[in-house]
Amino acid sequence: PLPPKPTKSPKDIPLDQQLMDDITIAPDGDIKFIVGEDELMRLHDKVVWPHTTGLLELRGRDMEIDDKERIKLKGRGTFVQTNYRLYFLRRKTKDMYHLDRMSHIPLGEIERIDVKENRYRRKGQPPLWLEIGCKGVRVVRFGFLDENECEKARQLLCAFVFTDVEFAFSFAYELTKPIPPGGDGWHIYNPIQEYKRLGLPDTSFRLSEVNQEYKMCSSYPKIFMVPSTISDEDLHSIAKFRSRGRIPVLTWRCKKSGATVWRCSQPRVGLFARNKSDEELLSRIQELNGGKKLIIFDARPLKNALANKAVGKGFEESSYYKNSEVQFMNIENIHRVRESYQQARQAVIGAGKKWDGRFRTRFEGSGWLKHIRVILKATFEMVARVDMQQASILSHCSDGWDRTAQLISNTELCLDGYFRTIEGFCCLIEKEWLSYGHQFHKRIGHMKQVGDQDISPIFIQWLETVWQILQQYPTAFEFNSRMLLTIAHHTTSLRFGTFLYDTEQLRREKKIPKRTVSLWTYLRCSPTALQGRFTNPFYSPKKDLVLYPTWDNLHVSIWGDYWFQHCYSSSSHSILKMLPPHGAHLDQMPAPPTSLTPLEDIAWSLRKQLKDERDKKIRAEQRFAKLKKQLLTLHEGKILNSKGIEEILDEKETDDKEEKQATLPKKSDTQPEPNTKGQSNGSDFGATDDKKPKSDSSAADDKKPKS
User: Fold this and answer.
1) Coil, helix or strand at residue 119
2) Confidence class of residue 36 from pLDDT cuts 50, 70 and 90?
3) Is 426 known to be catalytic?
4) Which residues contact 582 (CB under 8 A, 6 or more apart)?
5) Which run of H or of E encompasses 38?
6) pTM score > 0.70 for this model?
7) Segment 652-683, tens digit of pLDDT
8) Are 122 and 72 in contact (CB under 8 A)?
């Protein structure tokens, strides 16, 4: 069945309630829908409470855990589907809290719907499971008591989930109240104003409108910045030489040093091809920075770049591009990232209620954190080149819309304090991700089933790298982890039209700004935003502060707010307390808390430093006690001090002499001892040779250690 036409929102609803995102229950006990949400199906008392083997969205009163860590279901409820969400409203009992009755899943988050038979059915359990797999870290099962009702629910879900994106809830969600001045998210980013903020254009750079109709490059914006000496004819020639027509364009410039940041796609060099206009453009970038060497950051591993070169593409040859240097950042492609994400998600889902010590091994074995570290390392090198060496940099990968967007965004985030504000961060996503053609529709998989090879969580991976930098510099960002988590959630919820389609051209053709609401409007005007729940209370604005991210194991941890957001624990903190940091033993400190309260992060760091010092002292005392015990055993109670070695050697030499004298034949007591040196035995001398004092040289020789 086709989705019904969206109903218009009542005009008497205030704007703050139209932007409300919290799920509430009306006084009559029913679900209170948001604006534009219509009910499609309701099944009464035919479904039992949703559950899964590892994670579920429940409270403690909604379930019971037996001795074998299995979940016991406690009741039936109502299964409700709308054009936006899937709800489960449990039957009310006396000991139930008001909001504990409900679980919900946005339809845009669903990627798999399966009906499974309960083969190991016990008394009171449903015969069928409707298993729903989500794009995030969640797998939910609804137990059905009637086979017909289960099939009806599956068909209606598939009709609304796996369909054309034109039937998304984004087009039904319409605000009827005017947005306050400056609050409309569709006008938050203006490329002209952004270039003016950077002091552009000037005599060295010009604003090109060669792509005004998106004919030269369909994935680029209408206008972009290029050197003033490069003509439009040269740009067309370069577009034919670069993959997908994505030519080198300027994205950021340092006002103090004049160093610039550029992005593009890989060149079509093949084995022997070259393009004079492309070489002239890169040479001009060097001249505009005082003739300093241009650093080209290729995000791919070297072997991948060489493989592309064999099929007619590749990277810049130093023999053609003079005074330039190519560095490979070893960031894996979208397929490796997708595999790592799936393995990490499976490790979280299979962790269960009680951590058994194997979660860290499984999560680290997925390689997800390894990808995060590689991106942070590449960001550090790019920031250091621009800030410390004042060199201009150019970054690209294969097509320039996945790994390039990650590196360029992180570099600008660390170099420019404006992008660390709430408004600046929204502008950064609009500029580097949306206007320069990151394929959100393909990478997120809007309205697609699992198995599409173009799906890959590139944007989620970048948000986690931002969270890692936020953890390392908790006072440098105006926003907190809650805002990052909200952005990650609404990339798949399809409530807002910000991430619909792949290019700026398609969004303009589909009139997305006029037909949908922007996510940035919600982040600025919603009750959650006005209450300051997206704001970091410890933010210290320092626009000139340059951030250098760290990528070692101690500073890269799991984003608990994202990976454990659907855990049936009341918060992710209780799960994080069970997880030791990477490389640590099971009896060491747990991982740090999330960045919802930056003061907790600082306190945790101080506590860890104190614990490390205390552990060092304890280990030193243990080593000293062990050494003391060994010396007591070997040297009959004598402890070595600063002169202990010499005393033991002297004692050993004396013992050797006594043993030698004991082996000689004894002489009679009456026979006088011969005087070999001609000295008498008189009382003037009265001492034998053994009792005579030794000279300094002989004494020194006796004290020398024997070999």
Assistant:
1) coil
2) confident
3) no
4) 360, 364, 369, 553, 554, 556, 557
5) none
6) yes
7) 566 666 655 655 554 444 444 444 444 444 43
8) no
